[in-house]
Amino acid sequence: MQGLIEFFKSLPKKKCQKCGHDIFEKADCYGNVCDECDHPAR
Ligand SMILES: [Zn+2]
């Protein structure tokens, strides 16, 4: 398990282009915005 955590830690963190929050485990299809900013109702 530890190896898996280290693997994710080593991944470059994506930041939301709108609010600057870190984007966690999002698929690439989300682009560069977090869930909040990517909400269709906003
Ligand atoms: Zn955001």
Provide a quick synopsis of the model.
Pfam families: YhfH (PF14149). By secondary structure, the protein is α+β, with helices and mostly antiparallel strands.
Describe this entry's structure for a reader.
The structure is a single chain. The protein has 2 helices and 2 strands; from the N terminus they run H-E-E-H. The protein is of the alpha+beta class. The chain has one domain. The longest helix is centred in the N-terminal third of the chain and has 9 residues, at 2-10. The termini are far apart. The mean pLDDT is 77. Bound molecules: zinc ion. Zinc ion is lined by residues 16, 18-19, 21, 33-34, 36-37. This is Protein YhfH. InterPro entries: YhfH-like.
List the helices and strands and how they pair.
Blueprint: H1 2-10, E1 14-15, E2 22-23, H2 35-38
Antiparallel strand pairs: 1-2
Bound molecules: zinc ion.
Zinc ion binds at residues 16, 18-19, 21, 33-34, 36-37.
